[in-house]
Amino acid sequence: MKKQTWSIQCVLFLATIVLASCQKQNDLTGSSGSNVQPRALLTDTLTGKYGNGFFLINEGWYGHGTGEVSFYRRSTGTKSDGIFKKENPGKNLNPATSTLEFATIFDNKLYLVSKVGGPVVVTDPVTLVETGRIAAAGGNDWRAFAGVDNTHGLISSHTGVFPVSLPGLTLGTRISGITGEVGDMVRSGNYVFVLSQSAGVVVLNASTYAIVKTIGGMAVAFARTSDGTVWAAGGTSLLKINPTTLDTATVHLPFTANNTWFAWHPGSITASTAENAVFIAANGTFSGGTAIYKYVVGTPSSLSAPFITIAGGKELYGAGIGYDPAFNQLIVTTVQSGFGTNYGVNDLVFYNAGTGALVSDLGYSGYYFPAIPVFH
Fold first, then answer.
1. Rounded to the nearest 10 degrees, how much is the dihedral formed by the CA atoms of 243, 308, 290, 277?
2. How far apart are CA 21 and CA 232, in angstroms?
3. Torsion sign across C-alpha atoms 221, 61, 164, 157
4. What are the two backbone dihedrals, phi and then psi, of residue 129, each rounded to the nearest 5 degrees?
5. In the chain, where does DSSP find H-type helix?
6. How many Å apart are CA 10 and CA 15, to the nearest integer?
7. Most buried among 11, 94, 202, 247, using CB within 10 Å?
């Protein structure tokens, strides 16, 4: 029997789906409903239609349609929704039962990756116009994309990792030695680091894809600090991996880093580019957490208390955290705690990544189920 892939909403939402389905879906235009004053409008150096800001990748309301892409515009402090469909008339991310769960920008392309039979779609990251895709199919169950070089990439899935030729998106044969569900991936130096449900961190030679090393017990990945160091976590350990020697060291976490394999979403871990620091959320087994920790490398005491505690009545959803290098901010996505219609209450929260101070909060309504923020 084919293994069913679940989304978090599918697991937590089923018990109250009748209630939620009776609730009219809110207008998906994004509204400011925060008690925090809007921050001063910011600009950056990237121009173009979708240059000055960042993307929010949304799962979508399972069973009611696919996920979609939103864009937060720095110059106005507002959010635009459904921009993939808007910029690509006649195209979609169907089937409606698929879940848009991951995206990344690599080599000036935005890769959108869907679970549960959905497609992998490539767009221009400034215009959002589609430039290629791996078509949706019932046997597909993708997780993430990682670029290796300008002609090679990897796509993870519920059955392992597949090489893909770029830019034509031609899939190769599944990489030998990696089986079962695979999620996040990152390249650093001469290696690609892959998170496997069964094996933990699997390190691949970036040229041959041969397995070089396996590190068991890891459940959350990956962050990469400016020096190329790769970070993962599992149990009560934050793992540091040297990208050259593959030597490892661990730092004790004051909480358990739980996996999300049953309802996979990208790892709730990211790194600063302004300082040598890693951010990681203290999530439940497949539901969102309320605390975000910051490890300042070399200072274990920095983990003695949460760096950020989410406002009462709210919790992280999806990856929940992302680092915006252009403004040294931690971007946090939350929903209202609880079930059913609580999932229609969203906040996009901005924190100073150096101090943890709240910068602003954009509240909005609708069943988006945010998966991950993506930055230029």
1. 0
2. 38
3. positive
4. -75, 130
5. 8-13, 17-22, 83-87
6. 9
7. 202
pLDDT digits (tens, 9 = 90+) for 155-165: 999 999 999 99
| Omega prior to 306 cis, within 30 of 0 | no
The answer to whether 265 and 287 are in contact (CB under 8 A) is no
Q: Is residue 47 part of a domain?
A: yes
Verify cis geometry, omega within 30 degrees of 0, for the bond prior to 89.
no
Q: Find the CATH number of the domain harbouring 117.
A: 2.130.10.10
Residue 2 lies in a domain: no
Q: Cα(338)–Cα(15) distance, rounded to whole angstroms?
A: 11
Tokens of 197: 């449900």
Strand partners, 252: 237
Name the strands in the sheet holding 160-165, side by side, starting at the edge strand that comes first in the sequence: 142-149, 152-157, 160-165, 170-171
For 275, the domain range is 8-375
CB 231, CB 220: distance < 8 Å: no
Q: Enter the tokens of residue 161.
A: 């990792």
CA dihedral of 158, 159, 163, 168, whole degrees rounded to 10: -60
Is 327 within 8 Å of 343 (Cβ atoms)?
A: no
E strand or H helix that includes residue 53? strand 53-58
Which residues are within 8 A (CB) of 286 and not within 5 positions of it... i.e. 6 or more apart?
8, 11, 12, 258, 260, 262, 263
**Domain-embedded: residue 332:** yes
Cβ pair 217, 202 in contact under 8 A: no
How many beta carbons lie within 10 A of that of residue 82, not counting itself?
A: 14
Domain membership of residue 160 (yes or no) is: yes
**Mind listing the pLDDT tens digit for each residue in 205-259?**
999 999 999 999 999 999 999 999 999 999 999 999 999 999 999 999 999 999 9
Single-letter amino acid code for the residue at 79 = K
pTM over 0.85: yes
- Token reading at 363: 């509240």
